[in-house]
Design brief:
Shape: extended
Keywords: Cell membrane, Membrane, Transmembrane, Transmembrane helix
Pfam family, one: DoxX
Helix content: over 70%
Family: Belongs to the DoxX family.
Structural class: mainly alpha
Largest sheet: none
Subcellular location: Cell membrane
Membrane topology: Multi-pass membrane protein
Number of strands: 0
Strand content: under 5%
Distance between the termini: 47 Å
Order of helices and strands: HHHHHHHHH
Length: 201
Amino acid sequence: MKNFIYGLSQYYQKLGKTLQHADGIAALALRLYLVPIFWMAGTNKLMHFNDIVEWFGNSDGGLGLPFPYLMTLLATTTELAGAILLTFGLFTRLISIPLIITMLVAIFTIHLPNGWQAIADPNAPFANMQVLASAEKLEKARQILQTYGNYDWLTSNGSFVILNNGIEFATTYLVMLLALLVLGGGRYFSLDYWIKKKLSN
């Protein structure tokens, strides 16, 4: 038994040394997953800049944030710059910090009152009262669509759902950014790696 454990430990260490040359793939995957998310968020804010400023600053039906123009400018710039820098793996750790702040602001000012779920699912373990109440709305909407609409066509690409807009997606992106803060751009697949390699030589 002792020899088996020792052999397993040796194999595990050897596997770790072999895989360390591919550790940049994890950072690359995280970066490329986040790029379109931040690019779409940033370009949407840019195209509707004045509307976002109004929403950020409006305390009646909006977020009621201070300095709404500055906040919109910072959020838009951060998301667009983040998408570009993450694409190339340039200043990955540095850009992760304002992106993390952006996600925290989104979580606490927009999504937190809605609970965890992004899509309302009354059968999920984290269903709050808002999500549980959505079951009746969802059933009523299905009945209307089945009666007055082409329900099969409307649901041909997926089931009809109710958006809950909870913290689920924003928290997922936050966790991914925290990982990038630790990992950096990644070995071989980022400009960060090659710049550091060049400077060290």
